[in-house]
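Suppose a colleague, Dr. K., hands you the sequence of a protein chain of 198 amino acids and asks what its three-dimensional shape might be. Before reaching for any lab equipment, you can write down a predicted structure in token form. Begin with the sequence itself:
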Amino acid sequence: MPEFAAATVHLRTPEDAVALPVRGAVELGAWAGEAARRLVESDDDEPKLLDALATELREAALDSRERGPITALSYVPEPRLGELARIELSALVADDTHPVLTVELLQRYLAAPTPVSYRPPEAELRTLPAGPAVRVRHAYVQDVGRDGLGTVLETCAYGIRADETWGLVLLTSWKALARTDELCALTDELAGTVRVTA
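The predicted structure, expressed as tokens, is then:
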């Protein structure tokens, strides 16, 4: 497996997903407007839908840019409903604290309960074409209001050990709890498409 600096990482983009511009200088407003028009694909412009979708895509791009993933996708199978899920692929590189990257370390990183965990994380070991991996499902409570209620954010993540010095994290997150099985299946499918080449 090549070192991280010399590696090229590939991930299949699912149908109905938009690649978010997470690097480089991009005028996000213009980009989001064009991306929204491509997703809506209707002859008669629906200004309210286009505006709402463009705003959501712009905010999604800004949010993903903060984390600096290798790639980020907004999954929008039904444009009228907006973004269903966010998919990000990020790199983790060993450092002085953890000079060797192991699947066990990835599991501890991804499956650590937090103060906002909604339920305990579920982890299982897997083997992928890109390397040994751990799959972790987790749910968090976000945006808790004064009434103590919040929004549940679910995630399905894969920590993939590319070699002993670096790994990848494929993370899908969503708030549509009724679509959990579908989105976990999508994440499983995408994890199988991750490839690392020199």
